[in-house]
Amino acid sequence: MSSLPLNAESPATPALAEQILFEVKRVVVGQDRFLERVLVAILAGGHLLVEGVPGLAKTLTIKTLARTIQGHFRRIQFTPDLVPSDLVGTRIYNQRDGDFSTVLGPVFTNLLLADEINRAPAKVQSALLEVMQERQVTIAGETHRVPAPFLVLATQNPVETEGTYPLPEAQVDRFMLKVLVDYPSDEEEFVIAQRALEPAVEVAAVATTEQLAALQAEVRQVYVDPSVLQYAVRLVAVTRAPDRHGLKDFARLLAYGASPRATINLAEGARALALLRGRGYALPEDVTDIAPDVLRHRVALSYEALSEGLTPDALVARIMAHVPPPPRPLHHGEKAA
Fold it and tell me: 193-210 pLDDT, tens per residue?
């Protein structure tokens, strides 16, 4: 068994994350869980799929975050007439030189907001899929890498489905997390309206993309105990073969379960959460906290489950209740003490 890293406590990381969150929350009111998940995705090198009605500050959050880390921000409004070249770029013929030049598309940025991603046709989805997975774009046989760090935050409107295309399962699986954004509370909405009547707040840059890259490297050094990793494996395994794990009535409710990428994302998300919380090691509660966001878009319900009005969140909650987390490894507490 591997030993714990020497820097089991990482005070600098929470301090920097708090500064970033403080600056973002000077503009964005509420949405604490959403903001934390955005940071988790950035630190773990993943992508976010966000579902929420318009007007819940999704664009504002990403745009403000880009300012705080001195990164580049681009927003693409996905529409049915969008073509892949609108996304990744194209080759243009220059009549003066008699040669072709490459014009790179808006995906060459640090933070990319893909607004209403399910309104784009399959060709555009395939082009975005390569960028998300490979961090590169191929134009006329030439490969161009996107800047680092690179985060795709895609939004879906759960209310209006007319004129939308279902996302390919391969692309949905590329999203590390799916976050549900709800309406603000009455108190939060009062503050939102109050701030809208005041002069705009100037956000300060408190970090650089180089510092963010260093934090991503630090996340990869966070220790994950084998018992914590096994907990993640069991959660995912139940979604595939529930009858073999004591949930025989679940087999009729699931069309198919999560892929091994879900297990990897559970571990990576737990490591990022641990670092944000000032630890150099992941605990079972980190996996428990991130599990609904990792699994909800990877669990496909059967027609029977849909007819009964069940949701992926309800099934994930029942799976998590059935699979207990392991106890904290003793050497974690000794190291922290």
Answer: 888 888 877 888 888 888
